[in-house]
Amino acid sequence: MSAPIDGQWRRLAGGMLLIQPIRELLRFVPLLLVLLVVGRSTSRPPWEFAVAGLVILYGIGRFVSTRWRVTADAVEVRHGVFGRRVLTAPRERIRSIDISAHPLQRLLGLVRVRIGTGTSGPAARGVELDGVSRATAETLRAVLLHHRDADDGSADTSPPADRGRVLAAFRPRWLLYGPATLSGVVTAAAVLALGLRLLSEAQVRPTEVGPIAAVLRHLSALDWWAIGLQVLLAVLIVTTLLSLAGYCLSYWGFRLVRHADSSDVGGDGSALQTSRGLLATRSTTIAEHRLHGIERIEPLLLRAVRGARLTAVATGLQDGRNASRGADVLLPPVPRDAVLDIERQVLAEPAIDPVTVTLTPRGPAARRRRYVRALAGVVALAAAAGLLWWRHLVPGWVPVATLALVLPALLLARDRFAALGHAVLPARHPRSDGRVLVSRLGSLVRRRVTLRRSGVIGAVWRSSPFQRRAGLVTLTITTAAGTQRYHLPDLDDRVALEVAADLVPAVAAFRSTETGSTR
């Protein structure tokens, strides 16, 4: 297929003329349901049909008003029904290409292309082409990310024949880690909230709904312990099934592939590409020269079953307020050993193993802060419960019961301190700039970040009055990649300065200047 870089304005694929009105109707489903229920109960005119017609016309208008083009310098999208808006992404600032497709688009062979530029703020969403053919999307990926430009605007730039080396592929046993993500709890809560909202708008009591009424009648005939047991069992079954379903929908067919392409600028065009999804598919390509590190994430439940997930610390993945919305996923929740193996392959450090290196722990002052903060929370909760008991608002056993939280608080403090650690390692990878920072923190959600010095742009010291009394600071390493801020809490003043000097040349120069003036 010819590369669309002739500067001509183009429409989205014709199939979007069908999809756009349907999408707009789905957005207004709650309003249409309310109008339908109210209209039937009050014998008013069928306003829901008029509103639906206006929504369909608006969807058609959005399709008709949208144009896009690729020039030698930028990608531009022009749209707007009532007001014209033009979005521009300079080609030299393009960092990532994210291709996704929901079920309707897959049915018509269309995809959505999101072009990441690595910016933050109002323009963080970059440029989005919502409704082009997959062939066009793959051509745009080659043209924009791998810089397969031709001298003229009509040269063939079809995707390369190199299908890459598969680093990881979906395995059925990965499904066992789905329930440990608690995504089913969130889904169940969202479905319950939506159902209650619709019943409220329809002025229907939940107890009047047939299935709910039958369940309540069944529970009313049981003892309290049987009620608790059956409710707990039902919650576990529902959340487990929802977690498995969510995992399948999000990560079915997952593949992590490394492409090697020497045609990129600078002679290093290797890229990591992830693809996943059952009904709605998604494919994200990250140029490896934009990859400045990785982050291993281990929530408490996932850690208990020896699982973890892996994300990329790269530029160009931010969307909105520094959230990548899943574009940074390198591995979903999988066995921890698989995560460690992919970490080694992605980092590709020839001289060191930052994945399993022993980290430098914090000192006694940081340990005291963990225990003091944990016990302070329990004391505050007990004091609040005692006040409520004194005002005769709760029974007397409530303040006593809060004392049972002392042991869990102490265990949490111990685990939080054990998680704290860091190391600055010498590195030989050409993109590491000679140093790699490894940092770990967290208990309920443990995070281990490996960050190359090439991605570090600054360091910030912060200390609360309590930290200053203990001689501690929180060192924040700033970068344009990932979450843009990575914290190293409760470091000794001297250690924080050494870490910052190893990662930020300006700090090292300032430190040497101060040392020379002292002499």
SSE diagram, text form:
Layout: H1 16-27, H2 29-42, H3 47-65, E1 67-70, E2 74-79, E3 85-90, E4 96-101, H4 103-107, E5 110-116, E6 127-133, H5 134-145, E7 165-169, H6 183-201, H7 210-220, H8 224-251, E8 255-259, E9 271-276, E10 281-287, E11 291-299, H9 300-304, E12 307-314, E13 329-335, H10 336-347, H11 364-390, H12 397-402, H13 406-419, E14 421-426, E15 435-441, E16 445-452, E17 456-462, H14 465-470, E18 472-479, E19 485-492, H15 493-503, H16 505-518
Antiparallel strand pairs: 1-2, 2-3, 4-5, 4-10, 5-6, 7-8, 8-9, 9-10, 11-12, 11-16, 12-13, 14-15, 15-16, 17-18, 18-19
Helix pairs in contact: 1-3, 2-3, 6-8, 11-13, 15-16
Brief overview:
This protein is α+β, with helices and mostly antiparallel strands and 519 residues long. Among the domains are: 174-251, no CATH class; 288-361 and 420-518, no CATH class; 364-416. Helix content is 41%, strand content 24%.
Structural class: alpha+beta
Number of helices: 16
Main sheet summary: 7 strands, antiparallel
Shape: globular
Main β-sheet, spatial strand arrangement: 6-5-4-10-9-8-7
> N-to-C terminal Cα separation, in Å?
68 Å
**Helicity range:** 40-55%
Low-pLDDT ranges: 149-161, 262-267, 515-519
Q: Please report which band the strand proportion falls in: under 5%, 5-15%, 15-25%, 25-35%, 35-45% or over 45%.
A: 15-25%
Specify Rg, calculated over alpha carbons: 28 Å
Overall mean pLDDT score? 83
* Count of strand segments: 19
Domain YdbS-like PH: 65-142, 434-500
Transmembrane segments: 25-41, 47-64, 174-196, 224-249, 371-390, 396-413
Protein name: YdbS-like PH domain-containing protein
Keywords: Membrane, Transmembrane, Transmembrane helix
